[in-house]
UniProtKB/TrEMBL annotation:
GO terms for cellular component: plasma membrane. Keywords: Cell membrane, Membrane, Transmembrane, Transmembrane helix. It is found in: Cell membrane. This is Permease. InterPro entries: DUF318, UPF0718.
Amino acid sequence: MADTTHTQSGNRRLPRIGAWGVTATLLLLIFIFDTPRFAPSLVFLAEALAGTAPFILFAVLAVAYLKATGSETLLAKAFSGHQARMIVMAALLGGLSPFCSCEVIPFIAALLAVGAPLGAVMAFWLASPLMDPAMFAITSGTLGWEFATAKAMSAIGLGMLGGFGTMLFARTPVFTNPLRERPAVGGCCSVKKPFSGTPLWRFWQETDRRETFRHTAQENALFLLKWLTLAYVIEAMMLAYVPAELIAGLLGGTGVWPIVMGALVGAPAYLNGYAAVPLVDALLAQGMAPGAAMSFVIAGGVSCIPAAIAVWALVKPKVFVAYLVYALIGSVIAGLAWQMIA
């Protein structure tokens, strides 16, 4: 078969520059159009990364250990027994599991295929992209332990909201026959087959597990460094170029409206949970209401591209819409709760 990739210039795809490319482009633009700001931007980036480094290291090692031991096999226990118990356990494990949205696609696909209740699956799906050990470490290091804990509790609460809501309306047209005929289970990251059986906590006794630890640690370290570097550059630009009055006018103040706006803005604008943490920090410094910050990270985390693709790949559009509705309602509730106690 002939190579057709270079036959017509109109068919060529533009190269994907990725997060590193975007970071370099932003720094280049600063250098060209605001040269005096270039050096301070680099200093801000270096100081921010240095301050976050201990949390990055802890997150990388914790996730690598959990993956190498095969502790993901414990997740299966959440999907057995009474459905209400399953929903609670699925929400708890989803909010604490160390797996990205792409990695849970095969796991969820298998559960749906064998008839696991959609309510329990929905609970896990909603909670999973919002919090994991790495996310908790990064969030607590930047926004504080209180915010990170509140987000973790919100993730669990959102999971139970979606799970019990789905169970309650299971017989309605929205949730009957929810699966696509041929679900696509691809992902955006490399997904290895998990270890089966009982977790081996002394993983270094087996070569495959040592390799999994090394690979996972390396992959997550590069992932976090890539996205946090981009986020800190954007944070520096926001602090320098976005008027604080604009943020305060749109997302500041008291009442329900800033929280609703935080959810509506966060849902389409949020691309990566780790990158969002420094951005929220900058928004808070410019007058964003605490409740709006919480609704932003909750709505954005559930509707971010990897998480949304994971759901869209497996279920029909009506269930996907329900997933987004749960995200918006839950994010507003979380924002209101945090606004009262922050």
